[in-house]
Amino acid sequence: MAIFSDTFALPSVSIMFFVYNLVQNRPVMNDDAAVEYLEKLQRAKGAFDHVFYVELWVAALTGLAEEYSDYPGSGGHALLWKSFVLVKLPALIEKLEARKSSKLDENEEIKYGRHECVINQLSGFRGLFNTCNPHLEGTIEDILFEVADISVDILKACFKRNLLRREFALRQLELEWSGSDSMEIDSYAGSILDDPNSDMIEKFVSEIPKRFMDQESRIETILRLITEWSNDQKLRYLSILCRLLGETAALLDIIHLYHHPSKILQPLEQLCNTWERSNNDDNFESYIQDCESFGIIFLFFINIIDRYELYKNLKDILCNEKGFCHMWILQSSVVYEKRSLNMEKANMVDYWVSAMATNPRIFIELTPTIFKYALAGINKHSISATTVTFETLSKNFEFFLKPYSSYALVGAIQWLCDDVFFKGQNTISSKVLKFLISSKDFPVSVARLVANKVMNILDNSVGSLPSVEDTETDFKLKLAAANNEPVLSSSKHPYETLFSRFWTMFKSIVYGGRQLKSTPNNMNIEYDIESPQMDLSLDLSWRGSHHLDITELGASLITIPLCYTWNAHLHPNNLIYIFFSDALVRALDRKVTLYVQGQALGILTLIVLITWNIQSNVSTKIGGKSIYEVFIEHVLPKFQNQKNDSENDINQHKETWSKLMYGPTRGFIDSLISNNNLIEEVPQLAVFKS
Q1: pLDDT, tens digit, 9 for 90 and up, residues 184-235
Q2: Model pTM greater than 0.70?
């Protein structure tokens, strides 16, 4: 029995939540876990294959369309969503089909039939497809892609994944198509490894294949280059690659759509922890170039951790907990008293070049301390901060704006911000901070890392300091240029937009719901995006209950682990245990007054029970028990007549049991027993079908 309607105006919230998390809150789960989750979500929904696949496609296309609608001038994160639509999703569907075929005796004609049915149904969503084909001029899309009808690209992607028959694809395209759009990526990668040069590397990175069929191969090649060049400590070529990837944030996001950031971070960590100047290299000029290359690699490494908010999970992301990279991230702005340092390092605080010449890691570590003592020296010779001239600052600090030393500025800028925060704007620290970030030589890779802290200091400035506004404007422009964005506020990472989107979605659900009932009048409703924002003024007479959407959203929030939170108390294991042992029991006992409320709780429980038991990277055991055992122990006894108990126990239990079994909460049980898949997992429910 299907609980969910087989027609829809928009994809269900559970599918939308899954897709948005997979794209924007990645990496949450690997492909195998994602496929298993989809399979179990379909079981929970009781949806037919073709209906489920159409919802998946529409959810993915909705994400892409909303990016184009929200950012009509730049496409926002459209490049990432387009990769998901044309590469990642077809790959997941292919794996889902393989998983199903291994369990069912089904020939390929049946598979072809359902996906051809899906393509035919998708063709009716012209409004959605039109929004996904913006035909923008002068954007990153024009540079990296041929502007084409995305429906054609979807058709080709499905054919490549053996989801469609060749004759069907040709009939849909109405042209002669060879079915081959590949590029010789592997041989090109071999050429880069055998005889690398900057032009070849730049061409390989900048020319994203115009046909998405080769995107995964190109990404695998990039990971291979990073690993091999890190192991061989080829700083020059690796720094070129890191610089290009750092300049193309969209490409970096796409890489991590397919692979966990640790695939890039771990080889880079090993290099940054161990690289030393060759004893045979007495050429200081060559060493300076190596320091510049090291700095590019190091800043790229830190930028990945910052961009994907991995600070709280370093033990799982990095290899060496006691290595330089791990330790520096935890204490990047620490300053030392000279007397606490050994003689060599204490001397380096006064003679900066010697610190860099010895080892770039020592230079990075000591830079905040160098700044502290340099500012103390300026203070000794100045009456007040207002008497410090630009020439004085330039003489003392322009060294740190050079390409071979600027990579050490991150910790120093953080320390300066802290000093300004505690001592106020009218200080030497404030002047030095503004001098550095206003300089045309201030590196954008450092600007990205210190942006939030610097902007907080500038936004909270007190007094009338004419240089503050100019400095803030310059810094915003610098960051905007670094992110290829018109203004700083447009450079939000997908993490920041994900939850605002779902807050909007939630309000939309509350006002009117997103599901339509299956009626003859709405069987062929087309989804057409007409404005960038969801309409929150929906008519309260909107057909269809919103209870189902809220329960789906609740189940998704409980069961899908969120990448940004590493708090064990917020892990799905704990949330599910609390839900079954406390929240659900209390709701059934005291809060449910209508049958439909019990039914909604039943659907929520059904989705949680079926979808969470997946092979994820964390244990699915809750306190040593399976999710079903927890449910059976805490929830099911409420609905069971205690026939074997004493007469007094039976009398005490009778009132509660009758209320649950024959009152509004009966909807809870009816929702559970409507799904045969759940009864297979929890046979104790079968008794309620009688």
Answers
A1: 555 566 677 777 888 888 888 876 545 577 788 888 889 999 999 999 999 9
A2: yes
Amino acid identity at 177: W
Q: How far apart are CA 93 and CA 163, in angstroms?
A: 9
Measured CA to CA, the distance from residue 598 to residue 601 in angstroms comes to 5
- Residue 652: how many CA atoms within 13 Å on its side-chain side? 5
Task: Report d(CA 513, CA 511) in Å as an integer.
Answer: 6
Cα–Cα distance, 674 to 424 (Å, whole number): 66
Distance of alpha carbon 342 from alpha carbon 167, whole angstroms: 76
pLDDT at 66: 80
Distance CA 212, CA 453 (A): 38
DSSP lists the bridge partners of residue 558 as none
Cα Rg of the chain, angstroms: 29
Q: What is the pLDDT of residues 505-536, one digit of tens each?
A: 555 555 544 443 333 333 333 333 333 333 32
Nearest to 494 by CA among 283, 686, 307, 220: 307
Residues 564, 390: Cα–Cα separation, whole Å: 42
Please check the confidence at residue 70 and state whether its pLDDT lies above 70.
Answer: no
Quick one: which of 338, 329, 418 has its CA closest to 374? 338
Q: 600-639, pLDDT tens digit by residue?
A: 888 888 888 888 765 443 445 666 777 788 888 888 887 7
Could you tell me which of 611, 578, 489 has the C-alpha nearest to residue 12?
611
Position 558 pLDDT exceeds 60: yes
Confidence (pLDDT) at 396 = 75
For 81, 125, 217, 598, 647, the CA distances from 587, given in Å and listed in that order, are 39, 40, 51, 9, 27
At 2, give phi and psi (nearest 5°). Answer: -85, 125
If DSSP codes are grouped into helix, strand and coil, which group holds residue 379? helix
Helices (H), 485-617: 494-512, 547-559, 572-578, 584-586, 595-612
Of 258, 260, 253, 252, nearest in space to 24 by CA: 253
CB 515 within 8 Å of CB 8? yes
Q: Any idea how long the chain is?
A: 690
d(CA 156, CA 175): 13
- With a cut of 90, say whether residue 309 has pLDDT above it: no
Residue 569 tokens read as: 């108390």
CA distance 285 to 398: 19
Give the position of tokens 């500012």: 375
pLDDT at 92: 94
Q: Is residue 492 within 8 Å of 485, Cβ to Cβ?
A: no
Q: How far apart are CA 217 and CA 258, in angstroms?
A: 11
Q: How far apart are CA 608 and CA 606, in angstroms?
A: 6
Q: Is 571 left (phi over 0), alpha (psi -120 to 50) or beta?
A: beta
Closest to 420 (Cα-Cα) out of 407, 440, 434, 438: 434
What share of residues in the chain are helix, strand, coil (percent, to 5)? 70, 0, 30
Residue 662 or residue 451, greater confidence:
451
Residue 622 β-bridge partners: 625
**Cα–Cα distance for residue pair 331/365, rounded to 1 Å:** 9
Is the predicted pLDDT of residue 149 greater than 60, yes or no?
Answer: yes
DSSP string, 67-91: HHHH-TTT-TTHHHHHHIIIIIHHH
State the helix-helix crossing angle for 284-307 and 360-380, rounded to 10 degrees. Answer: 90
Task: Using the CB atoms, write b or e for 263-277: b if 16+ within 10 Å.
Answer: bbbbbbbbbbbebeb
Q: Are 292 and 400 in contact, with CB atoms under 8 Å apart?
A: no
The first and second tokens of residue 391, run together, are 């020439």
